[in-house]
Amino acid sequence: MSNQAAVDEQGDANLAPQSTDPALPLVEQPLDLIRLSLEERIYVKLRNERELYGKLHAYDHHLNLIMSDIEEVITTVEVDEETYEEIYRTSKRNIPLMFVRGDGVILVAPPSKST
């Protein structure tokens, strides 16, 4: 069974599922993947080296998100003036409830098994 998108005569990708297995969740549009993550923990990568791990409660077509029980990780890079080495620093904080504006979202995924 193939999960590759078919391409029509105009060169547009057809994102319709290739499987007819009723046990698999139906994914016809990209936002369907996010719909399947409602009330689940997700990973969100944002602009400016910010990452969120938390429970997704709601979303819209702009990718605005309502999340709870969030751990925010911010990575900053500093350059040592003497050695010109890059020094990476991370800071973490916990946030009980958050609205995430969709224009800052780069990626949404289930969290990796190691987190």
From the spread of the alpha carbons, the general shape counts as elongated
**Alpha-carbon distance between the two ends:** 31 Å
What is the radius of gyration? 18 Å
Oligomer: single chain
Strand content: over 45%
Derived structural class = mainly beta
Query: Poorly predicted ranges (pLDDT <50, ≥5 residues)?
Result: 1-7
What does this structure look like?
By secondary structure, this protein is mostly beta strands. Helix content is 5%, strand content 48%. The chain has a 5-stranded antiparallel β-sheet with strand order 6-5-4-3-7, with no helix packed on it. Strands 1-2 form a two-stranded antiparallel sheet. It has one helix spanning 30-35, and strands spanning 6-7, 13-14, 41-46, 50-59, 65-79, 86-100, 105-109. It is built from 1 helix and 7 strands, in the order E-E-H-E-E-E-E-E. The longest helix has 6 residues, at 30-35. It is elongated, with a radius of gyration of 18 Å. Mean pLDDT is 84; it is low at 1-7.
Task: Summarize the topology.
Layout (H helix, E strand, L loop, with lengths): L5 E2 L5 E2 L15 H6 L5 E6 L3 E10 L5 E15 L6 E15 L4 E5 L6
Antiparallel strand pairs: 1-2, 3-4, 3-7, 4-5, 5-6
Kindly summarize this structure in a few lines.
By secondary structure, this protein is mostly beta strands. The chain has one helix at residues 30-35, and strands at residues 6-7, 13-14, 41-46, 50-59, 65-79, 86-100, 105-109. The strands form 2 sheets. The chain has a 5-stranded antiparallel sheet with strand order 6-5-4-3-7, with no helix packed on it. Strands 1-2 form a two-stranded antiparallel sheet.
